[in-house]
Design a protein that fits this description.
mainly beta; 5-stranded antiparallel β-sheet; 4 helices; globular
Amino acid sequence: MPLRKDIWRPAIVERSLEDIVAVGGVGDAPLHWLPEQPPYAFLADPFGLWRNGLLHLFVERFDYRDRHGTIELLIYDRHFQLLDRREILTEPWHLSYPFVFEADGEAWMLPEAHRSGRLTLYRAVDFPFRWEPAAVIPLDCVAVDATPFHHQGRWWLFYTSASDRESKVADLHVAHSDSLTGGWRPHRRNPVRQDPVSARPGGTPVLMENKLLLPVQNCLTTYGASIGMLDIGTLSTEHFSARLIGPIAPPHSVMPYAEGMHTLSAAGPVTLIDVKRTRLSVRGLAIEARRELARLPARLRG
């Protein structure tokens, strides 16, 4: 039960992902911070879609009191004024990394849910508020932060393995399919990359100057220390090669959230990020102690 707690805060950056990658950082681009949360709770993993001039921003909401992530929606107008906020997806297991995207005339979400033991693709039945499971994607392991991308007529999926703590941040896996909802096959060379600095996905892939770039998290010294771009040189059903470029520098005005950045996702003309600070206090330890005590049978608590 560590005393130090990661506290994340997302922001909307008024600069496209392509521009951020081109200059190597967020710099002094205008920022619009999402609402700050109560102590020992946070929002993280922002992904977004524009519809009818409104930015629909999906995030994980997490509270250390129950350690159960849910997916929330925040709707902003074109001037980045918050219009609506509500919980739109909850399950008996922890949810995070709500990767939302459009394909085949539909809106889809592929949230991180490794504690369920499977990877479930959701489809919007009434965008943006109602989502239903559309397919379970079987893979060679339980996937963490699965990130889909359609490239050269085929669907690709980048993810790490939930098999152990090290694999979650260091073992990059790939799968491919002709269809989004079925027929997925793991890459023959999985894991295609083993490196805690450049394996765990952290945002939306982007194609720039015929280069496929995947945001990846540097987790060598701490979880989500920074974001780099994995330049994928070879991507086929038989072969994979990539090199790390970056890191992407965080905003100049990041304080006090200067201890990490682990999401870089595109939403049209803007980019969504999250940055972190840590809280160190006895209260954080007390929250963990109460949560663990509540798990004990009544006869032991008494």
